[in-house]
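Both lines are retained for reference:
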Amino acid sequence: MKSNKIIKLILFLALIVPGVSGAQNADTLLKRMDDLMLAPKDKQATVKIILTKTKSNKQKVREAILMQKGRDKKLYRYTAPESQAGIASLSLPGNVMWLYMPAFGAPTKISLLAKSQAFTGTDFSYEDIDSRPFAERFTPKLLSSDDPDVYQLELTPKSDKSKYSKVILSLNKKYFYPEKLEYYDTRGRKFKEAVYLYKKSGKYWYAAEVKMTDLKKEHSTEIIMTDVKFDQGIPDDVFSVENLKQK
């Protein structure tokens, strides 16, 4: 009898306090997105980066290679144009990030404060390209949405070093990949947004295209991923600080 009363009380609280069940659902949804994005054992791809000034439509094009292993190892290296070739970033376990600029001759460890800065002149910050799961970096809250095809989550950064006060995530209801991320500054003003196009290759989904737009600067960075390969058995030594100097 006593156990029945406890069960009824829990059900009653779940009904009258939306935050209880809502928080749990938000956590589950964000984890499902992380699981989808980080499902491959490893991933490698050729990347095209298009930087565009909105008003003049003037563009710059770069090329790079991407390698990722597990949930927290990522290597990103520019291959073209010649002025950018060799620039590389490395994400490692423990929220550690390194940057290699050939002109400086030695890799530099990126501090927590520096992670809010732009990544090599793009509209992505070092914080944006963090390889850690979203659930480790944000506290989610489920919002109501007018779009029947997406969940909307409000993500609050767990780090007080973040340049964002919140990020609004539009999550595909059927497959649980992100469709849009809207970024708000510390004054609560939206100043960036990223739009995603996901494709499926074999059993894995991946972001074939991402366009990040800085609304203040009127500038965008589009990333197009091709020649994507999964589970190639990339060796661990690829993701070493020493390897950053290689071209």
Remarks:
- The chain has one domain: 2-245.
- The longest strand covers residues 42-53.
